[in-house]
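lol ok so funny story. i was supposed to be doing the assay writeup but got distracted and ended up predicting the structure for this chain instead. priorities right. anyway since i did it might as well share w the group, maybe its usefull for someone
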Amino acid sequence: MIAYYIEGKSWWAGPDLNRRPLARKAPELPSKSENALLERFRDFQMVDLRRSKRTAYEKVWFIKRMLKAVSKRPNEISREDLRCYLKTLEKFSEATYKNALMALKVFFRDFLELPEVVASFRFPHQMFNPKQIVSREQVKQFYECLETPKEKALFLLYATTGLGRDEILSLKPEDIDFSKRMITPNSHVGDTKKSWISFYNDEAERALREYLTAKKSSRSQSYSRCNEMKWLNSGNLQETKQA
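and the output, tada:
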């Protein structure tokens, strides 16, 4: 991750965008039958409940984790088994506990039609924490610390469009109308969230074009180096020396 220090304070600028993020490893399942069951659970969410692909896969991940911890077949799991499992999640954040419990409720109550197994469990009450609003000068200082065109373009798109992380990172060239500075995100297909068009300002436009230009130049250089290495490995260098 990248951190900057401004006026004695540490500001987190998010993950290093030049490093490939580590994939979250899913727990192993004891049998193929459970794999097939979880595939049907995924399809149930996406087709019956109209959840997004990401939401469906996230809940499948939580259920895989639970099955590994409980070590029982889904139809053999009792309320007490889940109670013991949920105790192990108390060391995590309330958000993680809430997401895990939501996955359990959808899996047992809606998919397996066993509502009595999860009926007694309640979601945690999340305390309201007022957000600290940074000043305009602090935002400016933070932006000036960004080093790459990609970081600057992402920062200004977040700041001016109001779109979320997944909406920005899933953008394709056809989602952007450069003549109108308009973005039409396509990251949500479920019923839980809605998104429509958004716009970015001229400063974000300049940063975005600078990033796209740098990206195109970098790809051209990489393509040129690749062709050069192919030419060297083909034996042409030895032929040139002999000539």
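The chain has two domains: 3-117, 146-237. The first strand starts at residue 3 and ends at 6.
back to the writeup now i swear
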